[in-house]
Specification:
The chain is mainly beta and 362 residues long. The protein folds into two domains: 132 residues, ntegrin, alpha v. Chain A, domain 4 (Immunoglobulin-like), CATH 2.60.40; 149 residues, Immunoglobulin-like (Sandwich), CATH 2.60.40.1170. Helix content is 11%, strand content 40%. It contains two helices and 22 strands. Strands 1-3-8-5-6 form a five-stranded antiparallel β-sheet, with no helix packed on it. Strands 2-10-9-4-7 form a five-stranded mixed β-sheet, with no helix packed on it. It has a five-stranded mixed β-sheet with strand order 14-17-12-11-21, with no helix packed on it. The N terminus is likely disordered.
Amino acid sequence: MSHEIRSAVPPALAVLTLLSAPVAAGRAAASEPIRQAPIGKPAVNLSIAKSDGVTRAIVGREVVYTLSVRNDGPGDAVGARVLDPMPAELLDVTWTCVPSGGASCGVGGGPVSAVGFGPIDQAVELPSGGSLLYTVRGLLSFEAGETLVNTATVEPPTPGSDPDLTDNLSTDIDQVIRPFTFLKWVEGELRPGGTILYTLTVVNDSLTLQPDNPGPEIVDPLPPELSLLDAAASSGAVTLDHAGNRVEWNGALGPGESVTLVIEAVLEPDTQGREVVNQGRLHFSLVVDPSEDALGDDPTQDGLASGSINDGLALSQDLTTGGPTVFRVLASVLAIPGLEAWGLLALAALLGLAAVAVLGRR
């Protein structure tokens, strides 16, 4: 005789038990300590902001950027990467990095603070709540285009560790201002011992006076292949420094005014085939003046006006090629010396004797 074993639990209670099992399991899990998920560390929230505080940049003047990098957590960003390749128009770039909130301008026991030259490419440590402040300085080249664009980024230490990348990039854009036209060209006898002339012209393209500040406004140091002879200018005062082989010009230029400086020099005897490179320097002053904010977007920053010191530097641009004025010294030409009357008679006598000697041999 077979016996059928039946459950002692009523069907309704069995269903209730099955339905409540997940809830009970959840309560049991909740009562245990919360463990970190094995898929990775807590996410980080990196951000970067870059600005030079203005919307215009003046050629020949220093541009100063501040670059702020933060991590708002909750995780620590060890090995995050800060990148600022720097535009080619910025010359002589230097930067400093100052940390706060436990951050470091390096990783693995690297420097807490740092200084550098040129582009920024750094692996850094940014704990939750930590930040880095970079200060970047560079001279805006006279060859800059119509705008100066600089973009900096901060990359998370591992892909996906920063779920929001919208604030990991920052771009600063400035309109480029050219307050002066500074041209230069060369002409003359480009041979050893020959005399050449450099002509430099400066035009004040701004709307304000460029005053005659302390120190020279134009300086032209001649290369060693040349020796200074003389110089003259259409206005202002010219100083000849024969020992230093250079010319200086002092003077003021009103809006739209110009000056022409002509320098006379002689090529040294042993310069045949050598390349002669020369570039003049223009020292000028332009400072902020709210009354000249033509854009109307930032009246405290964007104006231009003359100042009391020459804190700007521009380099002359060759009239035809741009950049430095360059030429190659040509070969010397053999000259026939001039003869006086007695010299001509002596030469004729020598030629006569030579002719007699030749006829006598026949």
